[in-house]
Design brief:
The structure is a single chain. The protein is built from 7 helices and 6 strands. With 221 residues, it is α+β, with helices and mostly antiparallel strands. It has 2 domains: 61 residues; 154 residues, Alpha-Beta Plaits, CATH 3.30.70. The chain has a 4-stranded antiparallel sheet. It starts with 5 loop residues before the first helix and ends in a 6-residue tail after the last helix.
């Protein structure tokens, strides 16, 4: 292999490894997987107190198409301080919420998920009819999930056994539902990583080519 091909080979290998992690290659959930995930959720007790709609979750998992999806989250962070679920000490609600996200985001990332958009609310409702009054939403999050299988695994991940209490303490109200983008003008990792790797490979190619030309002796005419 010509040495100038090395950067391109490394770029292709890196992108292949990225796709192996980022894309769901296992297909849709099986019925046995759905039943197991729901049984684990019931055993964890997280579906209690109206915080999770088990029937809605079952319908979503059973309709799995194997594709990625994005969860839209509307969140109201409690104003002022709230009791820390562990110490009972009054802490700013945003700090309490960070105790949850510090555990959740690494686990989401490990399963090919990540925040696609996070934004704070800067105004009230412009168009609103047939809905309840604005409770004072604080932020919105648009979270990318690699698959519904990953969602099911994250919901019952034992590492979050106590982490959810931080979320419940900091968020008196939230509203979440899964979406499938119809139009997406923002470039995702599959696009910008491919472009970054191609640029790095091109630069490496030029450096190697320059080094080869510099080392080539100039023959006298």
């Amino acid at each position: 292999m010509a040495i100038w091909m090395l950067p391109w080979g490394l770029a292709l290998l890196t992108y292949a490894l990225f796709l192996a992690w980022y894309v769901n290659w296992r297909g849709p959930l099986s019925k046995a997987e759905v039943d197991s995930a729901l049984a684990d959720l019931i055993a964890s007790g997280l579906e209690m107190e109206g915080r999770n709609d088990l029937a809605t979750l079952r319908d979503f998992l059973e309709a799995d198409d194997g594709r990625e999806f994005f969860m839209l989250n509307l969140v109201r962070i409690a104003p002022g301080a709230v009791p820390d679920p562990v110490s009972g000490e009054a802490r700013p609600a945003r700090q309490v919420m960070e105790s949850y996200t510090r555990m959740f985001l690494p686990a989401l990332f490990a399963r090919g998920g990540h925040p696609a958009i996070a934004a704070r609310k800067i105004g009230g409702y412009f168009d609103a009819w047939g809905v309840e009054a604005d409770p004072g939403w604080s932020i919105i999050g648009y979270m990318r999930y690699r698959s519904r299988r990953d969602l099911a695994a994250l919901v019952v991940d034992p590492r979050f056994a106590g982490a959810h209490e931080f979320k419940f303490a900091a968020m008196p109200q939230t509203y979440s539902f899964p979406t499938q983008p119809q139009i997406m003008t923002l470039a995702g990792p599959k696009v910008w990583l491919a472009l970054a790797l191609a640029l790095a490979a091109a630069v490496g190619h030029l450096i190697i080519l320059h080094a080869q030309l510099s080392s080539t002796p100039i023959l006298a005419g």
